[in-house]
Amino acid sequence: MEEVGKVGLGDRVVRHPRQQELEPIHISSPRPRSTSRRFDSPFVLIYVFAFMIVVGTVVLWLPFFNNDGGFTPILTALFTATSAVTTTGLVVENSATYWNRGGQVVLMLLLTVGGLGFMSTATFLLIVIAQRISLANLLIMRESTGMSRRTDLFRLTIQVVAISILIQTIAFGMFFWRFGFAQDALFPESLREAAWHAAFLSASAFNNAGFNILPQFASEKVFGSELWILGGMTILIICGGISYAVLVDIVRFKRFNRFRLDSRLIIIFSLALWTLGAVAILGFEGSNPETLQGFSIVEQVPHAIFQSVSGRTAGLSSINFADTEQHTNFFFIGLMFIGGASGSTASGIKINTLAIILVAVLASIRGRTQVEVFGREIIQEQVQRALAIGVLGLLAVFIIAVFLTLAEGFPFINILFETVSALANVGLSSGITADLSAWGRIILVVAMFIGRLGPLTFALAFARREPHALYRYSVETVKIG
Predict the structure, then answer these.
(1) Domain count, the chain
(2) Section 443-468 average pLDDT
(3) Residue 406 domain flag
(4) CA quadruple 78, 81, 83, 89: dihedral sign
(5) pTM of the model
């Protein structure tokens, strides 16, 4: 064999190919004869999600589902359907007054399907339709649900649905009692109305959807002084936003030191962010007459806790973010960008991603080559994926904000707030969503769609399969800092 190269000043030597290359490991069953290649890629997630949005758009477009009696403007129907399926909660029309009961039922169905986890639904469809799981889809499944074996999928789906129904049923009973049977019930004249609002509120809160169909008087009362309801919604949002895997760990093991590393990181960093957000709300808005100044300190604390929990993932709000201080909005832009946990009803770059990045940064500062936490080492591939997700998320915010700035003339802080709220599928608004132009609404529709699928899914969907490397180049350092 001829030499591949000689050692010289050019330092362009490559290594000889390995004598034996390992065959790729196939993590799937044999391909059936009728399998379509369209279902053998991460694009199937995009297909399923886009299909749900199209169906929701067509249904909401029909005149039978609004109070105006005519066809809903197609862009309004598209924006609302996308917001519901992606569990965002941004709206261009008041959900309580524009949509009739049938339209509100459609919204509830769409946000429930989206909240239960389109990732689990799409993975299930991969088994039923394609009857195989490619390596790329297996990676998406593992990052999104924590399940790494094909046999876990059915068990995962059953657990997700069962836990979801159980939690929402308990919350429904609590809200139903408050709305229909309490001494100062909000809907004492109609138990059917009380039951409907209790069911919708519990579904919207648990699925971190942010939709609110309560009448204006009831909405102000519930989100203003009803600390019992605020507490119930806070618990629902937490249960939906920390992932089913963490809930299972809490119920099964009960002791923190027995939890999986993933659950430990989610719990610790979530508690830290909830505390930080509550302190920021109290400090920034406690003296603001438009938000919290009118409440006593005993009432301000529950409001701050609720807003800190909801403002990062759900979008239900006890204060109007059109009246908050700019530094409050900027702080919540960061919280919304982080979002909830992987495998939960929330979006954002995920608290898991933030935890891995911060732990890796700390390890680098301490001069360690391994990323270690709680006596466990995080593999380098996960660190690299976390960094990729973070960078892709920031890049998406930059691109969407630039386009939205070109299309609209609102202050940049409001545009950035709306951009991150749409990309992270939170649903908080600085008050400009209803006033956006057609182009601005289309940009936010795209942002909500991208945000729900996640940067990792898009990276795997559009990346070309790299050939197995036969050679490796020589190592050279690059100056940084």
Answers:
(1) 1
(2) 72
(3) yes
(4) positive
(5) 0.84
